[in-house]
Write a structure and sequence with these properties.
Shape: globular
Bound molecules: D-malate
Distance between the termini: 55 Å
Number of domains: 2
Helix content: 25-40%
Largest sheet: 7 strands, mixed
Number of strands: 15
Strand order of the largest sheet: 2-8-7-6-5-3-4
Order of helices and strands: HEHHEHEHEEHEEHEEEHHHEEHEEEH
């Protein structure tokens, strides 16, 4: 008789954002007149830059002409024109990444989840807590041992490595989802040194790098000395360029990143990942890759920056309302997320219910991101500006 992977039975029944969507649906069915404002899932609301859409249309038109039609892309790693554009983008903030070190994907979530395939199940995985649930879920699906580094109010939600603890795989995300906190270059150097001392691989999620405004906050782990020997970076166009509905991202694995196999041979992580992708992934559609390349053009970057500024303004609106209410928070400055302390010592899910019932505003309970998220709550700045203002006015009228 077939057996299921029972590790799945140990997970939360639903993925966090599916749970929230179900709760909101039930509320909205029970209160059909409620004008709900959604500030939960980090989904963008502004349309994609026109030059990006034009590039996608051009790509689609090429598919209708015999001479320019394209089937499979040979390497499976993404078209050269896009990998070169991404490499140029890294160069614009002073980081050298070769096009050959980049693989294009359908968004950071897939690679974040799938990368576990190339590592043995007896690795110990270190994840900062709270964290994007994908890191914990996908390792638990394989039955791996997961340990946590506590990010909390005391350390500004920026956990640092404990040298007395050993880890083989380390997940970091900066700017952080959900807390909006960031690591400085000096803090990242400590993590890189820790990874190198442990012979560990670091999986670095830089999906929110485009929101960094402060000097001294690296936009890539590869700005840190030694990172090319221990880190894999994953980034996405979802938040940078509004691609949540288009699906495109990229993973960078440096040539230097090798690991010793049990027979003593040096194994290239990029080669293993390419092998995995070759068997399980056929790449991103040509029109979407054309659109993605246009994001990195001069005009694409200009238009995309305008959208990011709009969201950053929303973050300021949320932050100033919280200031007025005397509610503590982190994030917002280098991140589209505001991470606030639930008033009156309320639990995250209790606060979620009160916000939904009394203000008809949806957010994300911090507890959904790990134990240190209990008592905290995430609001996103990806909404419409007027609706964000309206949501904060409603919250201000609540009595805590
Ligand atoms: C988030 O809101 O944290 C993510 O964008 C949602 C997801 O990728 O599942």
């Amino acid at each position: 008789m077939v057996k299921v992977n029972e590790n799945f039975l140990k997970l939360e029944k639903n993925y966090l954002f599916i749970n929230i969507a179900k709760k909101v649906k039930a509320f909205s069915e029970a209160h059909p007149d409620a004008d709900i404002i959604r500030m939960g899932i980090g989904d963008v609301t502004l349309p994609i830059a026109q030059c990006v859409i034009d590039a996608m249309k051009k790509g689609a038109d090429e598919m209708a002409v015999k001479e320019t039609f394209r089937g499979y892309e040979d390497s499976g790693a993404g078209y050269d024109f896009l990998r070169e554009a991404i490499s140029g983008y890294y160069g614009s903030f002073g980081v050298t990444v070769k096009p050959s070190e980049i693989r294009v994907n359908d968004g950071a979530k897939s690679d974040c989840g799938n990368i576990v395939d190339i590592f043995s199940d007896d690795n110990t995985v270190l994840i900062t807590d709270p964290a994007y649930p994908v890191y914990v879920d996908t390792n638990r699906m394989n039955g791996r041992k997961v340990i946590f580094a506590d990010s909390n109010e005391e350390n500004g939600f920026a956990a640092m490595p404990d040298k007395s603890v050993h880890a083989d795989i380390i997940y970091l995300c900066s700017p952080n989802n959900p807390t909006g906190s960031v690591y400085t270059a000096a803090q990242l150097k400590e993590w890189v040194d820790y990874a190198l001392e442990n012979g560990a691989v670091m999986i670095y999620d830089s999906a929110y790098e485009a929101f960094i405004t402060e000097d001294g906050v690296p936009r890539s782990i590869f700005a840190i000395e030694g990172a090319r020997k221990c880190a894999i970076e994953m980034c996405s166009l979802s938040k940078t360029a509004g691609f949540t509905g288009m699906r495109c991202g990229y993973t960078v694995i440096p040539e230097e990143l090798t690991v010793k196999a049990s027979d003593g041979s040096e194994v290239s992580i990029a080669q293993l990942w390419g092998r995995r992708q070759g068997s399980k992934f056929n790449g991103v559609s040509y029109p979407v890759q054309c659109a993605a390349a246009a994001v990195f053009s001069e005009e694409g970057l200009r238009q995309t920056k305008e959208n990011i500024k709009y969201y950053q303004n929303n973050a300021r609106v949320i932050a100033s309302a919280l200031d007025e209410m005397g509610i503590k928070y982190t994030g917002g400055k280098n991140s589209p997320y505001i991470w606030l302390k639930c008033p009156d010592g309320m639990g995250s899910w209790d606060f979620f219910d009160r916000l939904l019932e009394e203000a008809n505003v949806v957010g994300t309970p911090g507890a959904g991101f790990g134990k240190n998220g209990e008592g905290w709550f995430r609001l996103t700045a990806f909404g419409d500006a007027d609706r964000t203002r309206e949501a904060m006015e409603r919250i201000k009228k609540m009595s805590f």
